Amino acid sequence: MNAFVAGSGVGVRTGGERRGVCVRKRARWVNRRGVVTAVVEPAQKEAVEKKAVEKEVDVVEEQGNGVVPPEVPLIVPKRTTFAGLVYDRLQDTGADIPQQVGRLVTKPQLKKDVKRPRLVILGSGWASHSFAKVVDAVKYDVVIVSPRNYFLFTPMLASTAVGTIEFRSIVEPIRKANEFIDYFEATCLGINAQDQVIKCESVQKLEGESNVFDIPYDYLIVGVGASTNTFGIPGVEENCFFLKEIENARELRKGVITRFERANLPSTPVEEKKRLLSFVVVGGGPTGVEYAAELHDLVTEDMSKKYSKLIEHFTVTLVQRQNTILTQFDGVLQQSAMDNFKQSGINVITGADVVEVTPTAIHLKDGRELPQGMTLWAAGNGTQTLVQDLLNSIPEQAEARGRLIVDDWLRVKGAENVFAFGDCAAMESGALPPTAQVAGQQGAYLGRLFNRDYCLECELPYATAKPNSNVETIGMTSLAKPFQFLSLGIMAYIGEEKSMIQFEAGDNKLKLSGALTYLLWQSVYATKQVSFRSRVLVLFDWFKTKVFGRDLSQF
Questions:
Q1: 39-to-7, 76, 200, 244, 414 alpha-carbon distances in Å
Q2: What pLDDT sits at residue 461?
Q3: Beta bridge partners of 30
Q4: What is the CATH number of domain 236-381+488-548?
Q5: Pick from 380, 387, 422: which is nearest to 125 by CA?
Q6: Could you tell me which residues come within 8 angstroms of residue 82 by beta carbon, excluding any fewer than 6 positions away?
Q7: Which pLDDT score is estimated for 276?
Q8: What's residue 47's pLDDT?
Q9: Which of helix, strand or coil describes residue 221?
Q10: pLDDT for the residue numbered 292
Q11: Which of 419, 342, 384, 446 is nearest to 132 (CA)?
């Protein structure tokens, strides 16, 4: 039985859940499968009602709600195969080009007298940057709020922490992502989802002026990432370094040189020299493994020439709770990384739990004590305070484990007009790895949802009619496809100009490791830089390091 929905209401929620198809100033045909098949302007209402009677179908008059009767099911589009997903991504990229070119060439003028829906984005990481690049900032009033006014290419943080790459080579001003967006250098203190307002505090402390201000929004997008998880272990916060931000990389770089200089003093006892030059990395994921590898390269290739008397005391130890490192990779590549570390002289301790960190040692659960002069803690992701506060305020997020639960269209469960992506979000349909690749794809996906005028308040987002059209056939293809992650593979640097790459195509995997793979690793990261400037700087830094070595100056 067909149903006809007429009226000009907006979607409503029943019991905290989205129900039915949202109707905005038009009438819509809904077939027995619940798929919208036609959009009719109000002027055509009488003609359509007459047609409905002739065809002996039910006419459902909307009472300002726009809700399809419960007996009409809604069909979620099927997920795409790997090949289909690649095709979709290519189509999406092609569709973005006219807008990107138009933005650069025509420089469209914003109409100040026209009120546009406001999109507020929290964060300036991978997801937020991708969203800002794709979203139509002429159609929407886009505001980014972040204490960091730049995008950071996080996969190369380990390289900057030892001087292989310079700090400014992997950062890009967030305003460059889209010249039509507004940016406020501020921290979000809280989210009032009911009144659709966020409270912010300026990073710049202005004396005599209020540093706190409110920003109303029509749509809020949370992309604040994750913090480092210390698991409440005593001494971690006080005695460990972290590697999440460019400031962390700067501190690590300075910390290594400081310890070598202290160990080099004639007044430093031999035992203290050994402790100072005992470097520990806790966490066997990509961050921990790559930093251990980069640190070993720094010392053996450059510092050994300037601190030759100290090299015999230098050690790097990687502590991993699980029984192997780089668990995201295939077992063959995991073993390859372990073997390479063993040959390089990097100690790997697996199956070990850290129970305490003191200024001079790492204490393990089995009673072992590892002397340490400097420790990098890279043992996992934690929850940002803002995200935890939002989780606590939404009853539907009671089962969440530190990340905002979102549906297939990245809408936060239980919070109207709030979206989330990146490391602070967890998809209800299945877990995704907390990587830059996932976050970047989510940001671009959500930007396209907004650009294409999908009804995001509806249970199933569908494309609304084009302006000035009386009737438009919609059908299944107009329903927004759910987000799907297209895995292009994973990479890791394992030291001595060797890398590992695992390409993935559906269930098929291609595993590569060795010196030649390092060139491919470099090529991929150079290509993935977000600007031509960054590509040139990164390539130059690699050339400079190869020819002149790393800079060991401390300032």
A1: 12, 19, 41, 48, 29
A2: 84
A3: 3, 36
A4: 3.50.50.100
A5: 422
A6: 486, 505, 506
A7: 98
A8: 53
A9: strand
A10: 98
A11: 446
* Same fold flag, 112-226+383-451 and 236-381+488-548: yes
pLDDT at 115: 86
At the topology level, CATH places domain 112-226+383-451 in: FAD/NAD(P)-binding domain (3.50.50)
| Mean pLDDT, the chain cut into blocks of 10 residues (555 residues total) | 34 35 40 40 50 45 41 54 80 78 66 83 98 94 97 98 97 95 97 96 81 96 97 97 97 98 97 98 97 98 96 98 96 96 97 98 97 96 96 94 96 96 95 95 96 86 54 51 92 96 85 93 96 97 97 88
Q: What is the DSSP letter of 170?
A: G
At 192, is the secondary structure helix, strand, or coil?
strand
The enclosing H or E element of 385 equals: helix 385-393
Q: Compute CA distances 64 → 23, 38, 43, whole Å.
A: 9, 19, 17
Contact 489, 477 (CB under 8 A): no
Q: Which of 495, 525, 501 is nearest to 513 (CA)?
A: 501
Per-residue model confidence (pLDDT) at position 335: 96
Q: Are 413 and 406 in contact (CB under 8 A)?
A: yes
Structure tokens at 467: 């302006």
Supply 428's token pair.
């209800």
Task: Break the chain into its structural domains and give their ranges.
Answer: 1-75+462-485, 76-108, 112-226+383-451, 236-381+488-548
Residue 540: what residue type? F
Tokens encoding 32: 């027995």
The whole model's pTM is what?
0.84
246-264 and 286-298 helices cross at what angle (nearest 10)? 40
What does the pLDDT look like over 452-469, one tens digit per residue? 888 888 888 877 645 433
Q: Other CB atoms closer than 10 Å to residue 531's CB: what's the count?
A: 13
15: left (phi over 0), alpha (psi -120 to 50) or beta: left
Report whether 294 contacts 472 (CB < 8 A): no
Which residue, among 220, 219, 329, has the nearest Cα to 284 in the 3D structure?
Answer: 329
The predicted pLDDT at position 204 comes to 87
Picking from 33, 59, 36, the residue whose alpha carbon sits closest to that of residue 47 is 59
DSSP 8-state assignment for residue 293: H
Predicted pLDDT of residue 6: 33
Spell out the residues 6+ positions from residue 445 whose beta carbon is closer than 8 angstroms to its own. 410, 483
* 397-422 pLDDT tens trace: 998 999 999 999 999 999 999 999 99
How far apart are alpha carbons 522 and 499 in whole angstroms? 9
The pLDDT value recorded for residue 88 is 82
What pLDDT, on a 0 to 100 scale, did the predictor assign at position 98?
77
Distant-in-sequence contacts of 301-310, Cβ < 8 A, 24+ apart: 301/549, 301/550, 302/549, 302/550, 302/552, 303/260, 303/552, 305/549, 306/552, 307/260, 307/263, 307/264, 309/264, 310/260, 310/263, 310/264, 310/273, 310/277
